[in-house]
């Protein structure tokens, strides 16, 4: 077998493979002989059909099967021989396939980039720190009480936090618009479920009052017909209800799966949950900053095949996130919506994979166990969760991949210039900004593919 390779770009390769005719013909003849044992052709007994007749009847089909298998086998042999690492499936173009002549084809494909990691000591990272204060716990308890409050009718003007039962209808240019009407609608003032100004306009109103609200829809409203448009809502207040907060007793505590019967014990459980939440949030933010800086310091060529694969994954995630399920064809979502994010995610994956290999990192078993145990604490039967992970190799592998990625983050953070910044609990748990919220998808998988 002869192989020649041409680099048509930094990552694209055109590989010409020539397979000797003898290999093709031997495989075809061997396949035809097998066929002869069972072939039934009029005028011939089974097993006695001449080769010439078999070739005329089955030769073309058998040859195509053989060529398909030869392409698969020879492509793998060729990339191994040339020490190439394909980043995706090849595009195969046959050049010569006539009987009796050497078979030749051209395979076009991308390879994984050669990565020379930059010195990470130039990175500057701000690491946020936070502690859960007593005031944070008190605020959380009150928030939980408000979430489980009940409402009782009152004979007074409405206040912030009250629930109003209303009828309303919206008009644009004097005409009622679709979706702008409801009767007997319950609305909590301050919930921000209506467009800006709607709830504010209901403060100070009493049951039986009718009013008109002159408002403007936000410029980014999901309906193009209403976005940025001036409208009038005619509203009737049917009744006003004031919130009643639940008592801080065992019945209330049990709603959250907490068996504590006293307030101090309940607050202790709430604090534990908040501390776990803030720890996870701060870890995620630091991780995103470290990985994003890794990408910024290492400008690498990224195979389009990997980007396309990541775009498909992001499409599927988008469909699942919005509850489309089987009703939405993910492939119909424009690729350009996900292209930049996909490229960045793949870049992170390739760089993390390179660091794993360069530093010969393996997932720390103790860290894997502590991660699983921490995850299990959020369930009522922690030991069952732990046993599940260790009894399911696929689930365990996912945790090991996360731990391995965290070890890479720790390694990079130890090399960078890290400064700490104390932030409040509320700021700590705020989601990262879009440009910060990148992760390293399939880092181990991509590196494993590159090493094959």
From TrEMBL:
Keywords: Cell cycle, Cell division, Chaperone, Cytoplasm, Isomerase, Rotamase. This is Trigger factor. It comes from the Bacteria. It comes from Motiliproteus coralliicola. It is an enzyme of class 5 (isomerase). Gene3D superfamilies: 3.10.50.40, Trigger factor ribosome-binding domain (3.30.70.1050), Trigger factor, C-terminal domain (1.10.3120.10). InterPro entries: PPIase_dom_sf, PPIase_FKBP_dom, Trig_fac, Trigger_fac_C, Trigger_fac_C_sf, Trigger_fac_ribosome-bd_bac, Trigger_fac_ribosome-bd_sf, Trigger_fact/SurA_dom_sf. One of its GO terms (biological process) is 'de novo' cotranslational protein folding. Involved in protein export. Acts as a chaperone by maintaining the newly synthesized protein in an open conformation. Functions as a peptidyl-prolyl cis-trans isomerase. Belongs to the FKBP-type PPIase family. Tig subfamily. Consists of 3 domains; the N-terminus binds the ribosome, the middle domain has PPIase activity, while the C-terminus has intrinsic chaperone activity on its own. Pfam families: FKBP_C (PF00254), Trigger_C (PF05698), Trigger_N (PF05697). Residues 161-251 form the PPIase FKBP-type domain. HAMAP family: Trigger_factor_Tig. The gene is tig. Residues 435-452 have a biased composition (Acidic residues). Its EC number is 5.2.1.8. One of its GO terms (cellular component) is cytoplasm. It catalyses: [protein]-peptidylproline (omega=180) = [protein]-peptidylproline (omega=0). One of its GO terms (molecular function) is ribosome binding. It is found in: Cytoplasm. Residues 423-452 are annotated as: Disordered.
